[in-house]
Design a protein that fits this description.
The protein has about 200 residues and is α/β, with parallel strands linked by helices. The chain has two domains: about 140 residues, 3-Layer(aba) Sandwich (Rossmann fold), CATH 3.40.50; about 55 residues, no CATH class. The protein contains six helices and ten strands, in the order ααβαβαββαββββββα. The protein has a six-stranded mixed beta sheet, covered by helices on one side. A four-stranded mixed beta sheet has the order 7-10-8-9, with no helix packed on it. Strand 2, helix 4 and strand 3 form a beta-alpha-beta unit. The two termini are about 15 Å apart.
């Protein structure tokens, strides 16, 4: 049964940008690969046409590539054919619903227009994943997020940049510490806004 892309995205609780794939530049992919070790078990959220997943499979122990768009997955697998690496599992599913496999050490989320960062963050952390490689919070470059470090309550941050587990970033104070490294926080003002939205959200069937 065929359907239009708009209704597909609504059904999967994805907005226009989240549900569409567009490749990033080589510098970003190379930066990701530099943080993946031969012993890592990787999950790539929003794997698109599998261009990065195939390269990850060359240097990681295991790669799970999750992509929601079945047409994109089918086209990519048709091109790969019988050359699909044995350590690459391609899963056509919504990453919001798919459980994080046991043993995952690195999560990859390259999605500048991500509305569900907090969901992915929490699920990766709960599964024991140690590191998240992403461009979703700051919208440029590659951020290496240590999922094992403690995060302070937003209310305890007196001055400086912050990055929250919900995906929000910003600056608190009068600008006295413009060059300070961002502090990892929880329970920022955006967290409360997200909770309110979630409590009233109705997902079409």
């Amino acid at each position: 049964m065929k359907t239009d892309i708009a209704s597909f995205l609504v059904r999967h609780d994805l907005d226009e940008w989240e549900g569409r794939f567009s490749p990033y530049d080589e510098d970003l992919y190379q930066a990701v690969l530099e943080h993946v070790a031969p012993t890592d078990v990787v999950i790539e959220i929003g794997a698109g046409d599998l261009r990065l997943a195939l390269r990850l499979a060359q240097q990681a122990q295991q790669v799970y590539a999750i992509e929601v768009n079945p047409l994109l997955v089918a086209q990519a697998l048709k091109g790969i054919g019988l050359s699909l690496p044995r350590n690459l599992a391609v899963i056509c599913a919504n990453a919001l619903d798919f459980p994080v496999p046991a043993g995952v050490t690195v999560g990859i989320l390259l999605m500048r227009h991500c509305r569900h960062f907090g969901v992915y963050f929490d699920r990766l952390q709960a599964a024991g994943c140690r590191q998240l490689l992403t461009n979703a919070r700051w919208k440029y470059g590659l951020e290496v997020v240590d999922l094992t470090v403690s995060r302070i309550p937003f209310a305890e941050l007196a001055e400086g940049w912050y990055a929250c587990r919900c995906g929000a970033v910003g600056y608190v104070g009068t600008g006295n510490r413009p060059d300070a490294a961002p502090v990892e926080v929880t329970d920022c003002p955006a967290c409360n806004s997200q909770r309110n939205v979630e409590s009233y959200k109705v997902v079409p069937v």
